[in-house]
Amino acid sequence: MTTRIVLVDDQEMYRWGFRMALESRPEFEVVAEADDGDTAVELLRSVEADVVLMDVRMPRMDGVEATRRIRAGDGPRVLILTTFDLDEYAYEAIRAGASGFLLKDAPFEEVAAAITHVRQGDAVVAPSTTRRLLDRFAALPPAPEEPRARAAARTLARLTDRERQVLRLVARGMANAEIAAELVIAEGTVRVHVSRVLAKLGLRDRVQAVVLAYETGVVEAGRD
Q: Residue 71 and residue 43: Cα distance in Å, rounded?
């Protein structure tokens, strides 16, 4: 199964290098490129893609707004490309509907694996990067509580103790196999618990679960 990819970055040399690396693998095909979010949104009206690799800081329309528009239109899944200096943009893009984020200097094998996971419907939540991102936001003054977060906090009461445990471990960036080992249960059972948590909280994927867990205090950055 070939994964059709759109590259969105305002640096032409970066797009060129990424295209060369991706197309060296038979499972990937770069079907289009864009140098800003506005162009990407327009392109995706006529180009069929499975995954968009989206930079965040670009002229005219940044990656956050582009992600919001793409996902609002039921477009392809989005992976955010970021650096440590731009973590706040990655965070907002995840809230806008991105399926995760990658560091621009990540090893290519990690990038390839992330694209494949997203193509299969999973979300990219790497502990090494997710915790740094959320730890950074924990140091900022709290934002006014949003209706979605308030509603989700009330809904948390509907989770069983086991489901709450699973949510806490998901928020720590643990994969199903790691959660299964931690709780001494079958990996299939973990998948069932994760599905139930997402359904009860009205979440799209594990990335949203991570964000919501921190927003509602299920876990606290730097403490869990």
A: 14
**Cα 153-158-164 angle, rounded to 5 deg:** 75
Determine the Cα–Cα distance for residues 140 and 149; give it in Å rounded to an integer. 17
Task: For residues 135-142, give the mean pLDDT.
Answer: 55
pLDDT at 193: 94
- The candidate with the shortest Cα–Cα distance to 9, out of 34, 26, 40, is 34
As a whole number of angstroms, the distance between CA 166 and CA 192 comes to 10
Look up residue 200 and give its amino acid.
Answer: K
Q: Are strands 51-55 and 3-8 parallel, antiparallel or unpaired?
A: parallel
Give the pLDDT confidence score for residue 202 in this predicted structure: 82
3-state secondary structure the chain: CCEEEEEECCCHHHHHHHHHHHCCCCCEEEEEEECCHHHHHHHCCCCCCCEEEEECCCCCCCHHHHHHHHHHCCCCEEEEEECHHHHHHHHHHHHCCCCEEEECCCCHHHHHHHHHHHHCCCCECCHHHHHHHHHHHHCCCCCCCCHHHHHHHHHHHHCCHHHHHHHHHHHCCCCHHHHHHHHCCCHHHHHHHHHHHHHHHCCCCHHHHHHHHHHCCCCCCCCC
* Tokens found for residue 220: 């606290």
Residue 206 exposed, middle or buried by CB count within 10 Å (0-12, 13-18, 19+) = buried
Q: Is the dihedral of CA 191, 98, 31, 18 positive or negative?
A: negative
pTM beyond 0.85, yes or no: no
